[in-house]
Amino acid sequence: MKAFYPEQRLAASSMGERVATDLRMRIISHDIEKGTILSENQLSKEYQVSRSPIRDALKLLEKEDLIELKKMGAEVIGITEKDIAEIYDVRLMIESFVFRRILKKDNEKLIHELQKILEMMKIAIKYKDANEFSFKDIEFHETIITSIQHRHIGILWSNLKPVVECLILLDMRHRMQHNYEDFDRIIYNHELLIQAIIEKNEPLVEEAFYKNFNDVQKQSEGLWHNPESLKRASDFHE
Amino acid sequence: MKAFYPEQRLAASSMGERVATDLRMRIISHDIEKGTILSENQLSKEYQVSRSPIRDALKLLEKEDLIELKKMGAEVIGITEKDIAEIYDVRLMIESFVFRRILKKDNEKLIHELQKILEMMKIAIKYKDANEFSFKDIEFHETIITSIQHRHIGILWSNLKPVVECLILLDMRHRMQHNYEDFDRIIYNHELLIQAIIEKNEPLVEEAFYKNFNDVQKQSEGLWHNPESLKRASDFHE
DNA sequence: CTTGTTCAACCTGTATACAAGTATATTATC
DNA sequence: GATAATATACTTGTATACAGGTTGAACAAG
Prior knowledge:
Two copies of one chain form a homodimer.
Chain A: H1 15-28, E1 37-38, H2 40-47, H3 51-63, E2 67-69, E3 74-76, H4 81-102, H5 108-126, H6 130-147, H7 151-178, H8 182-199, H9 202-225, H10 227-235
Antiparallel strand pairs in A: 1-3, 2-3
Helix pairs in contact in A: 1-3, 1-7, 2-3, 4-6, 4-7, 4-9, 5-6, 5-8, 6-7, 7-10, 8-9
The first copy, chain A, binds a DNA duplex through residues 14-16, 39-41, 44, 49-53, 55-56, 69, 71-73.
Organism (chains A, B): Salinibacillus kushneri
Domain HTH gntR-type (chains A, B): 13-79
Protein name (chains A, B): GntR family transcriptional regulator, gluconate operon transcriptional repressor
């Protein structure tokens, strides 16, 4: 296990999930190249487990469209910049839907929860803990999404989450090293979002929202262009 | 295998997928009740296959949130009317996204393809073939969705598709028996949609679109209320 | 040199075996 | 009778075994 992914987060996972998490990280960080053929036997040797958990892992990655299960072997599809843009499209679509619902209801508890998470994000920045920051960032958005208690929107998110988690992790590790000042803006955008929810200010939501996505997307473009940066971002972990 | 699902559609599937398809149909049609605990051993006896394909099936259904994998046994979550409304929410969200893209591009091939599928839908109605009609209906929407070549929207759809397929199958079988005249309106709505794409008429798209979803959703409500109708719909197959 | 055939080394899908965990019923203790 | 300990009959997660199927290289024939 290459440990690209923080180990303690995997505590309760089965072997299949662990392998999937590791492979996912390696595929998205281009440590495993597009076009590579993975076989169950080879992976079971590499990870020192039997074929059963490997099969579980491959099935998971197939659902995320990171690999394609063929007659013989699984072909790595990988992820391009276009994919990343598309994933942001989808996130934007889902969260826009969520906000339309949020504006129609009382959000006292939600706001309280978001403020707590945001404070933790600030601490993570202070201690330059990119991993922790990433997980809190994800949690922030997940909290918003799940607040509307819409099961099927929740399902969409849970299917998308693993890949988004990888992207954010790599992105934030990179920023932490090379664009530390970015975090001011990220925090500001999140504060704006909370404010917008408090005021039920639809235009402000839209603004905060698009701003955040655009900022995040624009700023991180450099990373995905540069193989060396990607490698450093994936090697970096406590 | 209870054969709620047309057998010939399963031609190239593995045992796991077949079992998943059958279980999905049984869960959604309330043949298996919410709260039921499924165990791998019990299912492997019932379907006369080993635990391996059963495990595959359960993993698939878990991703669709139809069951929940617990420490011991898999609990059937099932599907309520609220879920069905939520699934329509999600479909509406996805297809709205798709249409915003479609209006920005040339759609000659798409229109041609849709017209072909629509003609087949008409034939299916003429011969009262609810199954074939359902699959063509799904194909119609899938054709629209995939036409924008947006991989991650495609992934969302492919995750949603199996459940939607079940819902449509049950719904259309019911209508074919009890609301045959509904099909006139369904066809009309699809024609409207094609027309809207041809004219790149955004308001018309919206109208055709909401109309179709509302019609379909409203009209089918009766089915999901009535356990007897559901049973008949699931028993009905050539 | 090209084409067709055979064969060996792989692959996956499924079946089975085993280890470790959990719930339930039963027994022992107070 | 009530409560705690234990036994038992399940369960899942992982490992392994086996049956086809697929690929590609070696080789024979033209």
